[in-house]
Amino acid sequence: MLTSVDTDLIRVLADPLRLRIVTLLAQETLCTTHLVEETGARQTNLSNHLRVLREAGVVETEPCGRFTYYRLRPDVIETVAGAFADLAAAARATGAADRKRACP
Fold first, then answer.
1. Which of 5, 17, 27, 104 is the most exposed, fewest CB within 10 Å of its CB?
2. Cα separation of 69 and 33, whole Å?
């Protein structure tokens, strides 16, 4: 079942730019400059989205000189994926398509 933590993560990942950032970080660790180049987003907008991802625990940072590198935390993505897999398994097990609650 989805917990409030899962739904918060889903909300964070539902934004198209944040999903694009997560997709890019799944491939490699990148700094803000790389992410600006890849997404075409303004640096301030991108930094705000990265802050949201960092506060949600989806990414972690690594300072490197005057740059900050971002790395995806796959365990967080696996948690959300697992919650959806559990929902799908519950729907299969109960035959949700064939099970109807009677109307009053």
1. 104
2. 9
